[in-house]
């Protein structure tokens, strides 16, 4: 009997030695810090996965909010710009009036700026960029990066103007004169800073002329001649006007 009890005692001792130390539980704070380490080492996807675990834990509203911002930043750093834009947009909708709203708006604008296309392509990113920066300036006129936001808006407006001019010219080339005039007509008033308004007026006059509206054609050509005296399009416009008489 004594021998049997001794064997049981030895087994229990060996079992305790083999079990080792029980690891500490991994909570939200642990995963947040883990995400920070991954982020510092440019392991952005691993960082996102760690911070997603923070969000899933519902441990702390404050920690969850920080994780949401970190996830958006990690998407941006890894050049997953659509995901970054979605993450920043979600943050603004879910946390109205948050103390970091100005930062998020600027970051959102920069995220859209990274997705800008040339004038011959869809300009949805351009409009979204302008909207983000305009909101930043409107709601936080004294924010640290307002000057950069204004410069981005100017960049975006030139893209939009160029896009409209490109489409209007394309309509003109393909013989869709009414569509060309409708597209080109608003450009001077909407984008007075556009540096190629002389070409816009020439294309607009040409569209009106070929569409049968001589009076509007003369008006567009006269505006070109009066406003842009050194334009290369003046001679072409004058030749077209001479053909009217």
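Sequence proposed for the structure above (245 residues):
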């Amino acid at each position: 009997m004594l021998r049997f009890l001794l064997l049981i005692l030895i087994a229990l001792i060996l079992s305790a030695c083999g079990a080792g130390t029980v690891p500490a539980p991994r909570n939200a704070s642990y995963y947040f810090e883990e995400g920070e380490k991954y982020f510092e080492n440019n392991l952005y996807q691993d960082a996102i996965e760690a911070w997603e675990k923070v969000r899933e834990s519902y441990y702390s509203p404050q920690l969850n909010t920080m994780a949401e911002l970190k996830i958006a930043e990690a998407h941006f750093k890894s050049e997953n710009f659509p995901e970054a834009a979605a993450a920043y947009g979600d943050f603004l909708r879910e946390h109205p009036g948050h103390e970091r709203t100005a930062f998020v708006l600027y970051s959102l604008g920069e995220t859209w700026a990274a997705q800008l296309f040339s004038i011959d392509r869809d300009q949805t990113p351009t409009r979204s960029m302008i909207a983000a920066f305009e909101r930043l300036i409107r709601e936080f006129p004294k924010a640290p990066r307002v000057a950069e936001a204004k410069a981005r808006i100017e960049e975006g407006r030139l893209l939009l103007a160029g896009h409209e001019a490109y489409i209007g010219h394309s309509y003109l080339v393909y013989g869709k004169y009414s569509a060309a005039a409708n597209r080109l007509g608003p450009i001077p008033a909407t984008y007075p800073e556009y540096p190629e308004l002389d070409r816009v007026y020439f294309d607009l006059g040409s569209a009106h002329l070929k569409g049968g509206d001589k009076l509007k054609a003369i008006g567009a050509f006269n505006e070109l001649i009066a406003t842009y005296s050194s334009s290369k399009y003046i001679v072409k416009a004058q030749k077209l006007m001479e053909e009217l008489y």
